[in-house]
Amino acid sequence: NAGVTQTPKFRVLKTGQSMTLLCAQDMNHEYMYWYRQDPGMGLRLIHYSVGEGTTAKGEVPDGYNVSRLKKQNFLLGLESAAPSQTSVYFCASSLADSKNYEQYFGPGTRLTVT
Amino acid sequence: TQLLEQSPQFLSIQEGENLTVYCNSSSVFSSLQWYRQEPGEGPVLLVTVVTGGEVKKLKRLTFQFGDARKDSSLHITAAQPGDTGLYLCAGHSGGSNYKLTFGKGTLLTVNP
What is the pLDDT of residue B27? Predict the structure, then answer.
């Protein structure tokens, strides 16, 4: 099993450009999450999904959109990138039957917006 | 809003030393998880503690959940350079809350 994979690993965007980050998991997990990690700020939840076709806002959703058309994939979109969105983005998934919602993370995407 | 405070924020020690890092909150959690994140990688789950006063051991790592389920500690015995990384605690408030509350982490460097 590959677990949670993310593409791309690195990306540089100019202000105003758009892009989509792809997260895929092969563990049949129901729940999926997108976080951003910035120095001194910890992990902050952007959006999450509790099942195929459903999404919900997290702590810092502004400037991002998400879609979960298939259970195994969770896409994060930036419609008009801003320098403030320079960060490392992590996707995670967890099993619905897990009482404690332990999360399994991907390796991250390092995004720079100039 | 539930918060988890981790201390210290940074810790640099020599190989062979012992250390303890802390994760504290004013809120009660139904369970608490510890993750380790190595440079350039995503966090990896180390352990989950669910019962107040619970102690779990993972080789040289000892995890304890406070009696009141508001705090936790991680003790590493005879640290090795391979223990270097960011240690994150995360709490689950229970029920059908799908989200975890993460602390900001302790960045541990073990020097050879």
Answer: 92
